[in-house]
Specification:
four-stranded antiparallel beta sheet; 580 residues; Hypothetical protein af1432; 54% helix; alpha+beta; Alpha-Beta Plaits
């Protein structure tokens, strides 16, 4: 997964977490506000109820009390016996009694309690009627009111049930002294209060219904928002994937250019990616890191696009100058990848895959832990592929030998931990035996023309002869017979006729020699001598006349020698020199 996709996922996770937290907060606030609103409603009811009671009381007080028929529910107030005319007869059949404001309100509050569950109470700290004795909460509230002369409220339990409690102060007025002067009150004194207690259960039940409804609405909003976020993620992912695809088409087009220049590089890239992934898995890396490493491996040689063909396509060993030039490819790779957003994360991996653990690598000479670990994995995989692949200048090693060499170089060129993992991960690798630098495509044949074909005659040169002999009796070659053809007096021919004519003669002779048997490989060596290799023995004597015909009138003669390669143990051009 590219870093853009990871970034989008992180943003989406953050949005989902934020949205979830916001909705959870909204639900919590809604629950809190609904329960608080239940208290507010209870308070409002208490305030309204008390105001009605106070208004009714004031009306009664303004008339000095009211006379009501004496009944079982309204017996004479024993606490007003000191008042003259407390009881009066309006007729022989009806007797009235004086009801003062507090007594009347007390009677009404009993009806409230029965009808609505609201508990009303006239209370005072200096009692006239024992029924008005304050409970513990009212006692503390009255003390507070005496200081503040303002109403007070709180939630408190009554008989283990939560109530909203509100008490409104009763101030002594002139009309109150008719009944309460004997208690020592003066106008303006707080002589008690009207207390209301409202059960909270009904309000809480209503709040719960509202909360359920609100949470349902919030849940719907949450799911809608979540859908929008996920849809946005999908669209963003599509956009990023398209952008990544466009970038990769661009970047891999550059890789294709390199591969078309040198198809060997393409196979090398894929093998290094394969080996690196196996090592990284052995070391326990997560999928994201392994994907980064794989992409880095697939692009690690992209900088070779800037390497001249004369160096990149050279099948043989590089000289010092050529080696310095090709080392620049890692810097070019880094610069190319770091300039593309989706590859910035792997640019550093590519940049350091030729660093050595002991600091002798390039381009920066980093050592040890200074080198990114994924780069160190690629370094081992790259070396393993080089060791197990046939090169023009070096035969491949077996898996066992390659792993032995990796271990020999552990803590020197390679990280020992990576080598240990590679030893396990690569021990059962099946090598491809068809990997070769011999020319297959037309382009590769042209490469060999440039590097391994004689520029005068068009046949192979001594360098390629050295390669063939080194890899004989392998999947590369299986030559059994070697023929050396000597040209005599050719130097004199050059002196008499000039080099141009000499080159023309060499070219004709070489082409004729090359045409004798299509299975042969023919080489020009040491200027005017030739070597032919063949899988099957053939009668060169039968063709001598054809060859000598090319030399007629030139005073140049030929001779030849024939050898069995296995019997003479010919494995290099140096061995061949001994036969001249």
């Amino acid at each position: 997964m590219g870093y853009k996709a990871k970034f989008i996922n992180r943003i989406v996770y953050l949005l989902i977490a934020s949205w979830s937290a916001l909705m959870l907060l909204a639900a919590s606030v809604s629950m809190y506000r609904d329960y608080e609103y239940a208290t507010i409603l209870a308070k409002n009811e208490a305030v309204v109820s008390v105001k009605k009671d106070i208004a009714y009381r004031k009306w009664i007080a303004s008339h000095g009390g009211v006379y009501v028929p004496i009944t079982k529910r309204t017996p004479p107030n024993p606490y007003l016996s000191h008042i003259e005319n407390r009881d009066v007869n309006t007729s022989a059949s009806q007797q009235l009694t004086l009801m003062n404001p507090a007594y009347t309100l007390s009677q009404m509050m009993e009806d409230y309690s029965e009808l609505y569950g609201t508990k009303g109470h006239i209370t005072s700290r200096i009692l006239m009627n024992p029924k008005n004795k304050p409970d513990a909460w009212e006692e503390e509230a009255l003390k507070k009111i005496e200081n503040t002369q303002k109403p007070t409220f709180a939630k408190s339990d009554i008989d283990d049930e939560e109530h909203f409690r509100y008490i409104y102060p009763l101030k002594t007025e002139q009309s109150c002294l008719k009944c309460h002067a004997f208690q020592g009150y003066k106008v303006g004194d707080i002589r008690g209060g009207v207390s209301i207690s409202i059960p909270m259960k009904w309000y809480y039940d209503e709040a719960f219904k509202t909360i359920v409804l609100n949470i349902a609405i919030i849940l719907v909003v949450y799911l809608v928002g979540l859908s929008v976020i996920l849809y946005g993620r999908k669209k963003a992912k599509e956009i990023v994937e398209k952008k990544v695809k466009d970038y990769e088409e661009h970047i891999f087009s550059l890789v294709n250019i390199i591969e078309k220049r040198d198809t060997y590089t393409a196979g090398h890239t894929q093998r290094v990616a394969k080996y690196s992934v196996l090592i990284a898995k052995e070391m326990g890396y997560c999928e994201d890191k392994i994907e980064d490493l794989y992409r880095a491996c697939m692009l690690h040689d992209i900088g070779k696009i800037s390497t001249p063909d004369s160096i990149l396509l050279k099948p043989g060993r590089l000289n010092n100058l050529e080696y310095e030039i090709i080392k620049e490819h890692v810097v070019v790779s880094y610069e190319l990848l770091s300039s593309v957003d989706i590859y910035k994360g792997i640019a550093e991996i590519v940049r350091h895959h030729h660093e050595h653990f002991n600091g002798n690598g390039y381009p920066q000479g980093l050592k040890g832990d200074q080198i990114p670990m994924l780069s160190q994995i690629m370094t081992v995989a790259d070396a393993f592929d080089a060791m197990t692949t046939n090169r023009i200048y070096k035969a491949r090693k077996s898996v066992v030998k390659a792993i032995e060499e990796l271990n020999e170089l552990a803590s020197k060129q390679f990280n020992a931990k990576v080598v240990k993992a590679a030893t396990k991960a690569l021990k059962d690798i099946k090598l491809e035996h068809n990997i070769t630098q011999r020319p297959k495509s037309k382009l590769e044949k042209e490469r060999f023309v440039y590097f391994y074909k004689d520029q005068i005659t068009g046949i192979y040169n001594k360098e390629y002869l050295d390669f063939v002999l080194a890899y004989n009796n392998s999947n590369e070659f299986n030559m059994k017979y070697l023929y050396i053809i000597y040209l005599h007096n050719f130097g004199q021919y050059n002196t008499n006729h000039g080099w141009v004519s000499g080159d023309e003669l060499l070219s004709k002779f070489a082409n004729k020699l090359d045409s004798l048997d299509e299975n042969d490989l023919v080489f020009r060596v040491y200027g005017d001598d030739f070597v032919a290799l063949s899988e099957n023995e053939f009668d060169i004597e039968a063709h001598i006349e054809e060859l000598e015909e090319i030399l007629l009138g030139t005073n140049v003669t030929l001779s030849y020698k024939k050898f069995n390669i296995e019997q003479k143990d010919i494995t290099s051009a140096k061995d061949l020199e001994k036969l001249f």
